[in-house]
Amino acid sequence: MKNLLALLFIIALAAxxxxxxxxxxxxxxxxxxxxxxxxxRYLEGAEKExxxxxxxxxxxxxxxxxxxxxxxxxxFSALAAVLAVLGRExxxxxxxxxxxxxxxxxxxVRTMVRFLVPLxxxxxxxxxxxxxxxxxxxxxxxxxxxxxxxxxxxxxGLYESSRRIPQKVRFPLxxxxxxxxxxxGVLGMVGGGNFLxxxxxxxxxxxxxxxxxWLTVLVEIGxxxxxxxxxxxxxxxxxxxxxxxxxxx
Amino acid sequence: MGTxxxxxxxxxxxxxxxxxxxxxxxxAAVIIFSVYSLIMALMWQRLQAPDLALTEAAVGAGVTTVxxxxxxxxxxxREEEEKE
Lengths: 249, 84
What we know:
The complex is a heterodimer. Chain A is mostly helical.
């Protein structure tokens, strides 16, 4: 009876969703609601209003700067929640990390990881610094750094990787995304504009594009470092438990 | 050509989603889920959203998979049998 009700509910929901999907405006139609309200303003005014060379960067960091700042805060609070539940690994107590994987990583895997990790980090640096004028940026580059740290940690263990990025380096950098964004926002007010104004009105008009570029790159670096450190810290404090279990057993 | 490729991707998406839900071995479910993320990343690229594709490939296929695997290592690998 219960299963039948669930099935009926799912069929009704699927029918409703399919009906709605069938009535959605076709993709790429110039008369779409998405293409008639704010998008024309973004596409036509972005270069003049935000002085950025890439419209998407202009939208993410300028028109929707508050939105992006909120997202950065969400990532930081995710780390805060994980730390509140699991607790941070204690400094200098990670030597006892016991590798519990049944298959010890072979020389080939170790050599490959040693060779690949610097290249992955290099690519992420490119993603962050070039994100101002190409796809990618702080979030993506930070996630790629985090991914490279995860690869390194799974092969070489927590002890080796936490020696490379010790806690005293990670701890101040975890909040760097929020802090950089906020500082750049306040600097916009100091420069005579509103919060999160990149092109300061008090600066000569000829210097504004360069200023916007540097501030954008600064924000991207902050977001990238913050995201990478948050991901690494989450991984470390999830893996760290391993050691305590191993010590108790 | 483009439409056929899209259809293949969508079929793979649905298949991997179902397989990930029904897999009893949680490790297998996680790996299938990362395949789902990878196809999703290709889909974003085809929808001309390279930003999202990068994020999905790095976070969806990379980071979350490893976090799930770490979680499985700390708990149990098999899903418990239903008691009816």
